[in-house]
Amino acid sequence: MPNIAVVTTTINVPHFLEDYCKDFKIHNHTDVIFIIIGDKKTPDEAKSYCERLAERYEYAVEYYDVTQQRSYLAGFPELDAYLPYNSVQRRNIGMVRAYELGVSSVLTVDDDNYLLEPDLLKYHLAVGEKRTLRSFRTSTGWFNPCQFLTATPNVRYFHRGFPMSERGNSHVSVTESLETGRVVTNVGLWLGDPDVDAWVRMTLPLEAVQWTQEENFTLSPGTWAPFNSQQTTIARELLPAYFLNPQAGRYDDIWGSFIIHRLAEHFGDIVSFGHPIVNHLQKRTLKSLWRDLDDERMGVLLTDEFVRMLRSTEFSAKSYATAYVELADALDEQIKRLAGLGESQAEFLLEYVRGMRMWSTTMQRIGNSDGLRRLPSSDRPRVSAVSPRSVEERPCSFQSGQS
């Protein structure tokens, strides 16, 4: 079975994946499968393009158009009912498929992330291994990874999802040490368009131009940082606890990252930040920024309360999957006891918990299966899984931003 699955969703022909294939071949990464989830707006050409990628580079490539998704999700009716179309959260389907296949880890990528340095998988393949990394602990319990990303103009800015209540704190003490632990998540960062809040994009155009650190770092227990899903590798055992919940809007990955921090602390594991660095090329219209702002609103308002509940939850679970169920139960109880929440805010949080329970049910359907549940032949995505051999080495356009 493949060692790592690259999962993406797109409404475009995924040309960016060709440079990924070239890079993986050059660096002898052969145990890889690509899982691409289309959507209603994805052109028909995407399917034939993925077939050509599979044939040309001899990787397993599974492309799911909307029809194939419906057939696949017949086995997961709760997930089928919960996920909206025309939504980045449909990449959850790819994560379910990867989990079903038995891969060791899943790399989620956005289709506007282009190679900037060679050997993309070098750092991502650290997931599952024990590493010693520089570790930061702060007096506030929060760390902003964007402090290591120099921007133009040269101003202080924050990663999307960093709590608003902590942004004005100018008296933060930082302690640095070395920490050894098993890496269960690797967060690759980016140059180009930084992942900041919609209101920042509206008021202060930024370009990240330099990553200032040589090696990756981690955070000590009790210190958290928001991270996204645009180039992030998750260990297999975390997948039942990592749901990009559409209820959270553009905080789906942010709140998911806070859950990973809390659960990793419980199990004594670590999250790695830094390499590989990619080039994030994205242009948003003013209309899309207003939509993003609305999708971030409830996350901004409720992050402090959500984090408080996470930090106060204690666990007895022996696995990430069962800890996630314990967390859903604890959140449900705490939300119902909260005073001062408006009705709409309480309903928002309770629906988030319902999504967590749905995800647990979905992953439990897979359980310890061998990953060989089959689609009807007419609905099966094109898969090419052949013995690797050398291919003509074509240079990757590492810094062009184009495939």
N-to-C span: 28 Å
How confident overall, as mean pLDDT?
A: 91
Summing up helix and strand content along with how strands pair, one would put the structural category as: alpha/beta
Largest sheet: 10 strands, mixed
Sequence of secondary-structure elements: EHEHEHHHEEHEEEHEEEHEHHH
Can you put this structure into words, describing what you see?
The chain has 403 residues and is α/β, with parallel strands linked by helices. The chain folds into two domains: 1-111, Rossmann fold; 114-296, no CATH class. 35% of the residues lie in helices and 20% in strands. The strands form two sheets. Strands 1, 2, 3, 4, 5, 6, 8, 10, 11 and 12 form a ten-stranded mixed sheet that branches. Strands 7-9 form a two-stranded antiparallel sheet. α1 links the parallel β1 (4-9) and β2. α8 runs parallel beside α9 (286-312) and α10 runs antiparallel to α11. Mean pLDDT is 91; it is low at 368-380 and 382-403.
